[in-house]
Amino acid sequence: MPQSAVIGVDIGTSSSKGVLVGLDGTVLHTAVREHAVDRPAPGHVEMHADIWWDELASLTRELTSAHEADVVAVGVSGMGPCVLLTDENDTPVRPAILYGVDTRSVPQIERLESELGANEVARRCGSRLTTQAAGPKVAWIAEQEPELFRRARRLYMPSSWLVRRLTGAYVLDHHSASQSTPLYDIVARDWYTPWTDRIAPGIELPELRWSGEAAGTVTAEAAHLTGLPTGIPVTTGTIDAWAEALSVGAHGIGDLMLMYGTTMFLVHTVPGLLRDPSLWSTVGALPDTRNLAGGMATSGAVTSWLRDLFGSDDYRQLLHLAEESGPGAGGLLMLPYFAGERTPITDPRARGVIAGLTLSHTRGDLYRAALEGTAYGVRHNIEAIEAAGGDIRRVVAVGGGTQGRLWTQIVSDVTGRAQEVRTTSIGASYGGALLAAQLVSDARIDIWNPVQEVVTPRPEMTSRYDELYALYRELYPASSHVVHALSDFQSR
User: Fold this and answer.
1) What separation in angstroms does the CA of 51 have from each of 55, 67, 217?
2) Per mean pLDDT, which range of 148-157, 178-187, 244-253, 311-320 is the poorest?
3) Integer Cα distance of 207 and 399 in angstroms
4) Most-buried pick from 82, 190, 387, 416 (CB within 10 A)?
5) What is the torsion angle, in degrees rounded to the nearest 10, for the CA atoms of residue 356, residue 360, residue 364 and residue 370?
6) Which residues fall within 8 angstroms of residue 434, CB to CB, at 6 or more apart?
7) Domains and CATH numbers, the chain
């Protein structure tokens, strides 16, 4: 008799990932579909929603055929917050606008803060308006593409779009809604009608549920397209970073998750509502939880860029060269703001800077500088979280960047923080699978995914990095006027 299993699917920035997991947490099969974002103009980052559904269907067909198992539930997640508007027939009116890596909505942010009051937005919604927020992107479509906006009737994100196609339910999880500033009231935990009517007139907003709740069951049509059994439950889902945190059990009070991916995400679970203008205050993926979060616009994206620039397909070779380079990367400092920066500087016009270059520097030095630059960004975010009242008691690492351990070791050395690494670091799709399993069983993450090792800081390295981190903090204010002028030049 086939064993019972669940499927988790996550739609990421550069790929979609699926995992088939037994109810005991054993990974039975994984599958990946790579894709690229569209960049139709400077600061614009988009993706067609057809990619999300087509890749889910392809992933589930592979997963269900690769291993004999009785699939009993499905969990979904995706990058976000994104803005996908559809008409009354659920046909997208335009490609989806992605999360904080898309910086087009700066004029709408400035206008909405002036009209609504920046402090009032932060008080009601938990966060200031930034390029991460979904609300200003809805406003951008309304202002810049009014003929398309007049056709719009519904708002989706990757996870809710998959739920709609799988079950017919029009729902969104509370966490994703809480990143839709200023549309969601973080205290009332509901849409804030005075502002939704103003910013998204004519849009029927989705019903709100918690990430682990069942949104519905797989329809006969969806089953035919995906290979999934008809009638099995599908979770409401959430944004990928929060699914990543669930995948490694980093959702207790005092936990901090570091997600090593295309971007770097930090999610800290707090006992009550904390607000800080340089960070994002959200509700959690689980009921009665709250988070203080941060995110860097690039991390793995910079290492991928360097890999392509070097003409290398082998990350292991580049990691070896970076390890040979040694702490300090031969005297290089990198600001990893290649797509602007989200927290804590909140500057969409920031740009990458590599300081200290000489003719003697190597590929290994540059790659090391990218890893160290990300680590300095993590430390900057950690300091901002603690300054805002966060109390970080445990750090858990997850994501593809934990492989090889050099990057995690550098982050521990730079921050002076130990990091737990769990046995399975697949990430969001595994977290989605866990939520799916909890619909039909008593699955627990400590049994599914125990701690494999703890990466501890090396005191002699931490003291050395303290000096370099101080220079890193000086580099942005010293160079910002130049990179802002260059950003403006790039936008012409």
Assistant:
1) 6, 25, 22
2) 311-320
3) 30
4) 82
5) 10
6) 8, 21, 25, 75, 246, 247, 443, 445, 448
7) 3-242 (3.30.420.40), 300-415+458-490 (3.30.420.40)
The mean pLDDT of 444-472, rounded to a whole number, is 95
Q: Which residues pair with 447 in a beta bridge?
A: none
Nearest-10 crossing angle of helices 406-415, 459-490? 100
Arithmetic mean of pLDDT, 226-240: 97
Tell me the pLDDT tens digit for each residue of 14-57. Answer: 999 999 999 999 999 999 999 999 999 988 999 999 999 999 99
Distance, in Å, from the CA atom of 276 to the CA atom of 486, rounded to the nearest integer, reads 29
Distances (CA, A) of 289 to 251, 254, 255, 286: 8, 12, 12, 6
Q: What is the 3-state secondary structure (H, E, C) of 335-355?
A: ECCECEECCCCCECCCCCEEE
H or E element that contains 322: helix 315-325
Beta carbons of 353 and 369 less than 8 angstroms apart = no
At 12, which amino acid appears? G
Q: What is the 3-state secondary structure (H, E, C) of 434-464?
A: HHHHHHHCCCCHHHHCCEEEEECCCHHHHHH
pLDDT, mean of residues 286-313? 92
Average pLDDT, the chain: 96
The crossing angle, in degrees rounded to 10, of helices 363-387 and 406-415 is 50
pLDDT tens, 353-408? Answer: 999 999 999 999 999 999 999 999 999 999 999 999 999 999 999 988 888 899 99
Backbone Cα Rg of the chain: 22
255 pLDDT more than 90: yes
Report which residue type is found at 403.
Q
